[in-house]
Amino acid sequence: MTALPSPQASTDPQDPAKEKQQRDRETERLLVKQAIDRHAAAFADLYDRHVVRVYRHIYYMVNNAPEAEDLTAQSFLKAWEAIERYKERGAPFLAWLLRIAHNLTVSYLRSRRDHSALEETYVDQKTHRNPEEALDQATDESRVREAVLRLRDEQRQVIILRFVEELDYREVAAVIGKSVPAVRVIQHRALGNLRKIMAQPQESPAPADIKNEPLRFVPRMERK
């Protein structure tokens, strides 16, 4: 008679990466709860966790480091002021922060009346290329960014959240307040419009300097 395996032997060990994600989620829930109770140190930890992502989201839209830093600081200030109204709706806390950051940046761009202004080429510090390759890629990235910024606000937001911030459909839906099927439709239409925009004749861009300076971030929130 074949012996049955023990419960311990039949239980597969959990994926370490999933265990870490679960711990991170639990830690973040605790930090959010403490921040809602007005613990500045907890909100400072949330700031540390998400400031790079918020900055990157804003920087993609404004393409200007000082402006992105200022808008990032304003976004976290608004989040701190509104933290008591935060409700978890199945999406990560980052989704709520990105909604605040995106709305603030859109308002800023509208006030500037310069939705598609691109000052210089996009900096890619993660790869090392020769100058010719760097210029080619920077030009391509600049064209893509310009095309994205010409989309309607809702389509632009979905494209940035999906392909810059790499959020999944559920998380994007939480940010923009739409259903997952609606997000899929918006993305499909946005990609179609991007292809049309990118297919339009473009004037040859003037050579641009390729910067290689570190991004500066807003000062860390003071703990109390």
What does this structure look like?
With 224 residues, the chain is mainly alpha-helical. It has one domain: Rna Polymerase Sigma Factor, Chain: A, CATH 1.10.1740. The chain is 65% helix and 0% strand. The protein contains nine helices and no strands. The protein starts with 6 loop residues before the first helix and ends in a 25-residue tail after the last helix.
Residue-averaged pLDDT, rounded? 76
Largest sheet: none
Shape: globular
What distance separates the N and C termini?
67 Å
Structural class by sheet pairing and helices? mainly alpha
Q: Which architecture per CATH? A: Orthogonal Bundle
CATH class equals: Mainly Alpha
State the helix count.
Answer: 9
CATH topology assignment: Rna Polymerase Sigma Factor, Chain: A
Determine the strand fraction and express it as a percent band: under 5%
Number of domains: 1
